[in-house]
Every structure is written in structure tokens, then in C-alpha cells.
Amino acid sequence: MIKKVLIANRGEIAVRILRACKDLGIQTVAIHSTADADAMHVRLADESVCVGPPQPRESYLNIPSVISAACVSGADAIHPGFGFLSENSTFSHMVNEHGLIFIGPKADHIAMMGDKIMAKKTFSRLGLPTVPGSDGAVTNVNKALKMADEMGYPVLIKAAGGGGGRGMKIAYSKLDFVEAYETAGREAGISFGNDRVYLEKYMANPRHIEFQIISDKFGNAVHLGERDCSLQRRNQKVWEEALSSVLSPEFRDSFGRKIARAVGKLGYLGVGTLEFLYENGELYFIEMNTRIQVEHPITEVITGIDIVREQILVAGGNKLSLSQGDINFNGHAIECRINAENSETFIPSAGTVINYHCPGGPGIRVDSALYDGCKVPPYYDSLIAKLIVHANDREQCLARLRRALGEYVIDGIDTLIPLHLKLVNNPDVIAGNFDIHFLEKVYK
Ligand code: ADP
User: Mind listing the pLDDT tens digit for each residue in 192-215?
Assistant: First the structure.
């Protein structure tokens, strides 16, 4: 049994993990940069260790500092959260080498899914449909051009090591293919240290639908239903819903079980998300995230399952406490990502939060690390809070969301609250009528 967890993260996700640990009676160690000395996650943890200066590379991403902090504080496990070191297979391997538990999958599964070409091949072999495209990496421009011609334009050139909405180039026709292909390879080499690229059919009007899974080391795996994350900007999610309004209960059940079987066969351990594009009634796999995701709370509120708690328990060697038949879906949930960004220009905003007032009442959950007077430093991801709303159905959920957004006050910095207010009142959003391009088309 895990007794003490070092949380290798900051902000709302560090607080979220802390809460799961406290509920389990597990001691917590926070790490922080010098910029975060007064942060909420540091205040709430049992202990804290400063791991370096503000720049992430020198603190939250500094592997020797993070592992040393775990060793000196006597932690027996490290939870990486999301972002930072969460999908770094070298880190997870080193954590194990130091006799500590990495709360996440095995290092080889992180590496496998971190390479999107391998991920697609693996799940295609395990029987899941994937987005049509090249069979593996394309290394020769002439062969790539021939393949793109056969596939039909537009074609997406994707970096095998891409992530965070980066590492994709669209070729709309034969004329711009060669340039797009060469730029994609060059940029991928610089950004991800891996210049391998592959081709995918660029889907015109898909929805982004993803399935949450969790499995234990005994090969038991279940799915917790899906989330619709189609409202995106620059391929990054802004608003998520569970469940999706386009999948029927029968389709969800049979497809979800198929996914759980594939994950069980793989011997995957812990939580993960399989992402798909949905078009014309079909789901096509694009990638798997091997960590807890930002949007996990909407699944928690409709299933009543504390996913982070389950994640810690299976990492500690416990058997999954749930079987597929125990999992029920109640009502509808929506999450709005509250980023510290200008809601029209999307320029990040840093500063001191004043007049902080958090919404409440039936069906409202706010995951954040904000408090009146807290600092939002300029060095980190702009996600500062998540507003999660739950109700019996989608219509009531939208009404509660409208109320909660109206109550939410965060002064002193710019946030995406004004954008969410527009979305919650938009007739197409209300009708559930959107795809991955909707948000950018309507609110450039
Ligand atoms: P990342 O790891 O950067 O998040 P993904 O492969 O998950 O990359 O893709 C992110 C988003 O990009 C998707 O949610 C979708 O909006 C868009 N996208 C990815 N692949 C395609 C495709 N083949 N056609 C159209 N849009 C795509």
C-alpha cells in the first residue's frame, strides 16, 4: 500500500491529486518552483520541497531534482499529473529504478503511445478502426506525394512525436503538399526531437470523442464511457461534455467493451484515454493519452467514480474494485476550461487574482488552485480552473452552467469566462450541433 505520494505537478491538478490522497489517508509531498512558494498546492500538502527556479526546465521538468525531492522526503510513489513529466518514459523508468512507484503505466507503454505511429499500429492490430492514412512513417517525399494523391486531399501530415495540438500540417492540394511535408518533418525534428511523420486523411467535419479506461495489473480493464471534446481552439480543448449526444447506448456499450478488451490484452496499467474522431456514424482512433486528463471530472460526476483514487489504488498493486457491470452513467456533465487568457485574442494573462468568488449550488464543482490574492505566474500552462457542471439532462446542465458562469468572479487577470458565456448562449451549442472546427469558425 502506498503511504506517501510526491506530486510532481502544480496548480489545480496538484490540488486534485492531494484531495484523492487525503481521502485515502496517504501523506502528500508538494514540489514547487520559487515562483510557486505561496501556491495553494504547497499550502495544502503535508510537506513541500522547492525544486528550483521558475522556468519549468529547471524545476518541474528537472528529473534529478524531482526524484531527489521524493527520496529526501521518504515518499514511496510519484504522481506526475498531466503535462510536465507525465508522459516521459525515461522519467517513469528512473522513478522505478529508485525503488519508487510511478503512478501511471509501465515505461514501455508510455513510450509506445508517445509514438503516434506505434499507437495506431498497436490498436489497429488489436482490432480498433483508425483514421485512414499511411501505414507507418513516410520517409520519401515522392512516395508520400503518391500516397497523398491516392488518399485524396486535404491530407494531414502529422509528427509521430507530436502533442498538445502541435505537430500537424495540412496540405489542401498536390501543389502545397511537398512544402507542407518538408516543413512538418523539419519542425517535428526541432520541437519533438523526432522527425518521423505520417499521413492521415484530413477529416472535414468530425467530432472528437474519447473513451476513458482504467485497468489493473491483473489484466482487468473497464471503460467509463466517453467524452465529447469537439469544442477546440488550435486543436486544444476548451469545453468538454459527457456523455456524447451522438453515440447510442448500444454502440457505447459494445465499442467501449471492445476498447477495454484491447487495453486488457495489451497489459496496460492505470488510467488512459483513447481518442477518436467521429464522422458518419464511425469512430476512428487517433491517439492514446497515458495519464489522467484535464477533463476527467466530467466522467467522475456522471459515474460517481473517483478516477484519481482508483488510479492510485491500481498503481499500488490493488485489484480494480469495479467491473463493467457496476458502471452506470447518470445525467449529463459539462466542463469549461478557465484559462488565464484574453477571451478574444487568447493572449495569456499573468498577474494577481483579486475579488475571487467561486460559484456553487446544486451540480457545481470547481477544480482550481485559486484564492483571493494568489499569483498567476507567466511561466506555466494557462489553465487555472475548471468549472464542472452536472444535471439530470443536457438542457438542465446548460441552465446550471449559465448560472455558474454568471456567478464566477476572477478579477485582476483575463480569463476565458466571457468566451464560455458566449458558447453557453450560442444556438448551435445549445442544439449540440458542432464539430471540431466550430469554435474557430464562430469565434476566430
Ligand atoms: P495532440 O496529441 O496534439 O492532441 P491529436 O492527434 O490528439 O494531437 O489531435 C488533436 C486534434 O487535432 C483532434 O482533436 C482534432 O481536432 C484534430 N485532428 C487530429 N487528426 C485529425 C484528422 N485526421 N483530421 C482532422 N482533424 C484532426
Answer: 888 899 999 999 999 999 999 999
pTM of the shown model: 0.97
Which of 10, 196, 233, 291 is the catalytic position? Answer: 291
Which tens digit of pLDDT belongs to each residue from 289-303?
A: 999 999 999 999 999
CA 162/CA 150 separation, integer angstroms: 25
CATH dotted code for 4-103: 3.40.50.20
Ligand 1 in reach of 203 Cβ (< 6 A): yes
The domains of the chain are located at: 4-103, 132-201, 207-442
Contacts of 8 (CB under 8 A, 6+ apart): 31, 60, 66, 78, 79, 80, 81, 84, 85
Residue whose grid cell is 487517433: 286
How far apart are the C-alpha atoms of 166 and 171, rounded to whole Å? 16
The response to whether residue 169 sits with its C-beta less than 6 Å from ligand 1 reads no
Answer yes or no: 291 catalytic. Answer: yes
pLDDT of residue 267: 97
More confident residue, 190 or 32: 32
pLDDT at 444: 67
Which atom belonging to ligand 1 lies closest to the Cα atom of 232?
16
- The reply to whether ligand 1 has any atom less than 6 angstroms from the CB of 232 is yes
Cβ of 68 less than 6 Å from ligand 1: no
Give residue 57 CA to ligand 1 midpoint distance, Å: 26
